[in-house]
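Data availability (excerpt). The following record was deposited with the supplementary files.
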Amino acid sequence: RSLSAVLAVCFAASLLHGGKIVPFTPPIGGSSPAAVKLRKAFAALVQNKLAEAETGFRAAMRLDPERVESLIGLAEVSRERNQPAQEETWLKRALAVDGGTALAYRAWAHYMAANNRIGDAETAFRKSAGIDPASPDALVELGDMDLAYGKTENSVQAYREAVTRRPDAYAAHFGLGSALAGTNHLDAAIAEFRETARLHPSAPAPLL
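Predicted structure:
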């Protein structure tokens, strides 16, 4: 099996678990009442307690209407209920908050990728990366997707940008190592895997 085929499976696995799309669950910062409700709501979502999750997301939205995590969470609930039109509506509402936040565009990119709209997903990941120039997250996810779909040079570029932004982002180094290995730049790939292991010694992947 080719490396690109293996990575395509890995990318699919990042979206799928047991044949189902894995919920997009962003980290929730802060200790405000809205943040507390959001953490509990996302925990309920992961456990497939949809009514409890929906109640929590709606409560958080009432407390802090400007937090896009509530809208993203409600979109995830709609997806779990197989309500694609409602899912898209919630995500579009998230994109409308403050003219579109980096997190909202990442969620939209995941939605596009899950629906095999890869070009639209790439655009959304790039938009997210442009909105938050300090974060490597969207670029790492873009690199993962490009690599999985055989766009190796594009993935190298995305991972390198992510490493430039955050030299301590071990996921970016691992992705870059995978992309370089796919283009037969083995010495450079090994260097990236070693850096991954240095930054995250408990991660087994670089040792495989």
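Summary of structural features: Strands lie at 16-17, 20-21.
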